[in-house]
Amino acid sequence: MSSSSSAERIVSFSILAIAIQFLFIRSVFSQSQNNAFLFHKCSDIEGKFTSKSPYETNLNSIFRQLSYRVPSTGFASSSSGNTPDKVNGLALCRGDASSSDCGSCLAIAIPEISRRCPDNKAGIIWYDNCLVKYASTNFFGKIDFENRFYLYNVNNVSDPASFNMQTKTLLTELAKKVTAGINNKLFAAGEKNIGKQMLYGLVQCTRDLRSESCKACLDGIIGEIPNCCDGKEGGRVVGGSCNFRYEIYPFVTDA
Ligand SMILES: *[C@@H]1O[C@H](CO)[C@@H](O)[C@H](O)[C@H]1NC(C)=O
Questions:
Q1: Whether the CB of 154 sits within 6 Å of ligand 1
Q2: Whose CA is nearest to atom 5 of ligand 1?
Q3: Of ligand 1's atoms, which has the minimum distance to the CA of residue 154?
Q4: 34 DSSP assignment
Q5: 46 dihedral zone (left: phi>0; alpha: psi -120 to 50; beta)
Q6: Whose CA is nearest to atom 6 of ligand 1?
Q7: Looking at residue 114, what is its pLDDT?
Q8: Which residue intervals define the domain Gnk2-homologous in the entry (predicted)?
Q9: Which residue's CA lies nearest to atom 12 of ligand 1?
């Protein structure tokens, strides 16, 4: 594990204990520095299902479909069953993850979210390389404002005001690129020379979103830079529909 990522801190809107859990899980389960567990959330809003119920059968069915369909393209959404037992789910791999990294991320994430949220009708789990989300409500195409967390590098830059501005500029350029129409993966990565050093960034949306919604989602999280990672050497805002990450070291695999 690199020193920069081990110095990373997580901030969630919900529970502070997550920070401890994050460090614990990371040391126990992380497969490699490139696919760390980040965060999960079991939703109580949609209620619970019981063992051997139709909901459980439908959930297992979408998990199978996602494991099968996602690795080749990096994204799929899937629904199974009929109301009130209908389950909707999606999975997304990081835009630069190979199909085999994508498949192995899902092979870890799916059993892990089942273990962590054994009977919740809705849940979400994030790793560096993938995200898996499911719910009984149809959330496809809608920006997820509920599920969101921050990660940042504890190290401070020497010139926060200018650094924050450069970060915002880079990520905004990437957000424009993502939604310019040429990029159907809703993923962009890039870098920027900011004088003393380089700045590296990526932005990505789940591909159930239309490109305008993707842009709106990204603009929203980019606006959170002052809250998530003011003057920090690295930062991420990670949501259920879009995320960004920036670092002062290269972290994206060239396609
Ligand atoms: C970064 O700055 C914050 C706020 O001034 C301070 O609390 C923190 O200790 C600094 N971090 C490091 C690694 O020096």
A1: yes
A2: 156
A3: 13
A4: T
A5: alpha
A6: 156
A7: 97
A8: 37-139, 145-251
A9: 155
- The pTM score is 0.88
Residues 159 and 132 both lie in one domain: no
Q: Is 189 in a helix, a strand, or coil?
A: strand
Residue nearest to atom 4 of ligand 1 (CA): 156
Residue 135 lies in a domain: yes
Please name the residue whose Cα sits nearest to atom 2 of ligand 1.
156
Q: Is residue 31 part of a domain?
A: no
Q: Report the atom number in ligand 1 closest to the C-alpha of 7.
A: 13
Q: Does 91 map to a domain?
A: yes
Amino acid at the residue 15: I
Say yes or no: 154 and 113 in one domain. no
Residue 79: exposed, middle, or buried by beta-carbon count in 10 A (0-12, 13-18, 19+)? Answer: middle
Number of domains in the chain: 2
Does the beta carbon of 27 lie inside 6 Å of ligand 1?
no
pLDDT tops 70 at residue 77:
yes
pLDDT in tens, 32-42: 457 899 999 99
Give, to the nearest 10 degrees, the angle between helix 211-222 and helix 160-178. Answer: 170
Instruction: Give mean pLDDT, residues 77-95.
Output: 97
Q: Are residues 136 and 154 in the same domain?
A: no
Q: What local confidence, expressed as pLDDT, does residue 29 receive?
A: 40
Domain interval for residue 233: 149-247
User: Is the model's pLDDT at 13 over the cut of 60?
Assistant: no
CATH at 77: 3.30.430.20
Assess whether the C-beta atom of 107 lies below 6 angstroms from ligand 1.
no
Q: Is 7 in the pocket of ligand 1 (CB under 6 A)?
A: no
